[in-house]
Every structure is written in C-alpha cells, then in structure tokens.
C-alpha cells in the first residue's frame, strides 16, 4: 500500500512538472529577426508590446531570410522556430515543402484589414506580408532638378556617370535589375535585355556596388545622384543628412514582401498566431513605417504626409506594387548571377 501510495504521489509530481513545463513552453516563442535597425524597430513595434500584452517571452535569433530558411529546412524533423520572418519569398518554397503551417483567418483579428494581395497565400501556408519594402529610385534632390518618373530614366546618358547599381546578389539589387529588364522588353524567361542595358550604363560610367552601406558612400563621397533601390534605404540616407528622396517608377514598383510565417509542427501555435496577429495590426505597421519607411499592408494604417511620401501608401499607392515570382528567381538565381558577373566584368 505504501509503495502504491508513494508511486501515486511520484506520478502526480511528474504530471505537475510536465504541465508546468508545457505552460512555460506555451509562454515562450522563438523567432528570427533581421538584426540592426530592423531588429530594433521589430522590438519596438511588435516584440515588446506582445510580451507586455501576453506575458510571454520572445527569444530572438538574428538571422536573415536565407539563413533562417536554411535552419528551418535543417530542423524539419524537429523545428526550433515558432514564427519565422522572410523578405525574399522563401515562404512560397517553405509552404510547398511542408515547413510552414496554413493559417486559419478566423484566428487573426486583424486579417480583414490586410490588403488581399498581402494575404492571398495563407491557406497554403504562405504567411501574410506585414510590411513591404518598395523598390523604386533613390535620387539626390539637390543634384537633380527634376525627380525621375520612369524606370527608363535610369537609362538617360546624362546621369550614367552618377548612377549606382546594386549587384544582383543583393535582394533589392535583383528586384531593381528585373524591373529594368522588364521595361527593356525582357521577362523572367529572358534577362538579356536587362543585361544589355546594364552594359550600356557601365560603359557610360555607372558604378556597381554589393551592399547598402556602399550606396551611402557613393552618395556621400563619390557624386552619386541616382540608384534603383528600396524606400527604407532612402530613409537611411536622409537620416544621415543626405538630400535623398524616394520615388516610384511609373511602370510599377517591385515589392519585397516581408512576411510572418507559422512554423509547422510546433506545440504553441495559438501563441504564435497571436504574435502574427499583432504584426498585422494597425499600430505595428504604422510603427514600422515611421521607423523604417516600410509600406503598411493594413489598409487602416494612417501615416503623416512626411512618412507617406517615402512609401507606397494607401489603396492607390499599393496598386503599382508588383511581385516577381520568387520561385522562378530562386531556381535561376545562380545562372543569372553568373551572367551578371560576366556582363559587369567587361
């Protein structure tokens, strides 16, 4: 009898311990963020408010999209992330591979306010876009008497010597190049028109850089006037005291979707969905726009005229956004980079 009684007590203690562990797990989320200024804004706009509202703890791993996706793939049998963020379209591949879970819109209180294009894949497991980096033209408002209006303005021989192009190994650089290719008559099956245009620009004195800080250096020190790049980086240049402004091209605005995704086969998906929901909120998206000049996908977001001028804002502003097929880009990336490298080497 004593043995059975002791076993019963031990069993009860074990169950209590397991329950306590489960409760602790339920109150902890592991996510990735992108580091630097982005991660600072992420904490301010979403992570800290979420922790205060829910009492949960958010563990942040600094990992850019490609690295986070590689980790997610490697951990498929025992995933470690609860929520994963991407900016390069990895959610499309991840959903197909079963790494991401479909999202029930009934679990998200803010989903009705999100533009349709930003939530079209949630039933497939493609997380909704909670911010967008709009790719257009950054220009020096003092050096250029008129703002560029068309992507074809990049081809003006008068500005070639003051033009900066980002290497297509850079995500923003890839999108800018694909848009240039598009206006020159190319498409994702044929990038030669874009490569021919780049060769002409380089012959005219254009500069190629690999990283965002190099663009700032070109504008600050080397006489750059114009660069096809993202709205958030135009804001970075302006904060550094440079007369940089951002404008969308008339033919369309390539969009880098920043998505928040529900990882499959994790035990605390209810808490993860609450985190995703907060990312979609009006207040979070207004915060991201104010802090980094990202385009909100929540139709109810209200921005000041100054902030709105630096993003694609409102129903009319987002009409010009376009998204090149991320799966096609990924499948061709290596071959395109090889062709690009041969072009810029001459």
Automatic annotation (TrEMBL):
The keyword Transferase does not apply. Keywords: Periplasm, Signal. It comes from Labrys monachus. It comes from the Bacteria. Coiled coil: none annotated. InterPro entries: SBP. This is Spermidine/putrescine transport system substrate-binding protein. The keyword Calcium does not apply. Residues 1-24 form the signal peptide.
């Amino acid at each position: 009898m004593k043995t059975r009684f002791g076993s019963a007590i031990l069993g009860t203690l074990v169950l209590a311990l397991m329950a306590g562990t489960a409760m602790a797990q339920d109150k902890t989320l592991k996510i990735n963020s992108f580091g630097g200024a982005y991660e600072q804004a992420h904490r301010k706009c979403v992570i800290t408010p979420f922790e205060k509202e829910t009492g949960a703890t958010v563990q942040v791993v600094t990992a850019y999209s490609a690295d986070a996706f590689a980790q997610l793939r490697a951990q498929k049998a025992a995933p470690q992330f609860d929520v994963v963020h991407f900016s390069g379209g990895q959610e499309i591949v991840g959903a197909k591979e079963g790494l991401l879970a479909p999202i029930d819109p009934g679990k998200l209180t803010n989903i009705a306010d999100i533009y349709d294009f930003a939530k079209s894949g949630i039933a497939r497991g493609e997380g909704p876009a909670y911010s967008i980096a709009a790719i257009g033209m950054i220009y020096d408002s003092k050096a250029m008497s008129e703002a560029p209006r068309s992507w074809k303005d990049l081809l003006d021989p008068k500005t070639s010597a003051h033009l900066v192009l980002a290497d297509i190994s850079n995500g923003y650089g890839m999108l800018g190049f694909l848009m240039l290719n598009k206006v020159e008559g190319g498409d994702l099956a044929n990038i030669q028109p874009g490569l021919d245009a780049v060769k002409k620009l380089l012959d005219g004195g254009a500069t190629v850089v690999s990283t965002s800080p190099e663009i700032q250096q070109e504008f600050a020190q080397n006489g750059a006037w114009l660069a096809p790049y993202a709205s958030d980086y135009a804001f970075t240049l302006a904060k550094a005291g440079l007369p940089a402004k951002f404008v969308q091209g008339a033919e369309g605005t390539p969009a880098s979707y920043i998505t928040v995704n529900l990882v499959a086969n994790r035990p605390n998906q209810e808490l993860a969905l609450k985190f995703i929901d907060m990312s979609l909120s009006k207040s979070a998206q207004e915060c991201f726009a104010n802090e980094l000049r990202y385009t909100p996908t929540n139709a109810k977001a209200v921005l000041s005229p100054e902030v709105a001028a630096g993003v694609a804002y409102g129903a009319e502003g987002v009409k010009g956004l376009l998204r090149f097929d991320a799966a096609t880009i990924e499948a061709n990336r290596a071959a395109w980079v090889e062709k690009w490298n041969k072009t810029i080497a001459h």
